[in-house]
Amino acid sequence: MTTPNKTPPGADPKQLERTGTVREIGSQAVWSLSSCKPGFGVDQLRDDNLETYWQSDGSQPHLVNIQFRRKTTVKTLCIYADYKSDESYTPSKISVRVGNNFHNLQEIRVDFHILAVVNNATMNMRVQIAL
């Protein structure tokens, strides 16, 4: 999720990790969801298997909360969506918010390609994705 350089649009996150361009830091955080159906939670969201996924079970916005133990710089956020499989469930709007706790989250501007590149990376303890 962090990178020293700007990530090119359409880049494969796994390839970038193998070459050392990015480093996956999601395992250093505590992940939570606003809701999920049984068997479609955080484990399926994070398991690197494109056949499994998170499925929310509640009203919008659907939230993914990522809380780091200390302030962490996040420059790149990878989000995979498959419109052919998801169709009407593919989000039409994604909001990324950062801050040090739930009370000071601020929405940040991101450029979405296949990767979500956070332009103005700052040190934060919490990242929230709203779908």
UniProtKB/TrEMBL annotation:
Signal peptide: none annotated. Residues 1-131 form the DOC domain. Keywords: Cell cycle, Cell division, Mitosis, Ubl conjugation pathway. One of its GO terms (biological process) is protein K11-linked ubiquitination. It comes from the Eukaryota. PROSITE patterns: DOC (PS51284). The keyword Iron does not apply. One of its GO terms (cellular component) is anaphase-promoting complex. Belongs to the APC10 family. PANTHER family: ANAPHASE-PROMOTING COMPLEX 10, ANAPHASE-PROMOTING COMPLEX SUBUNIT 10. This is Anaphase-promoting complex subunit 10. It comes from Prolemur simus (Greater bamboo lemur).
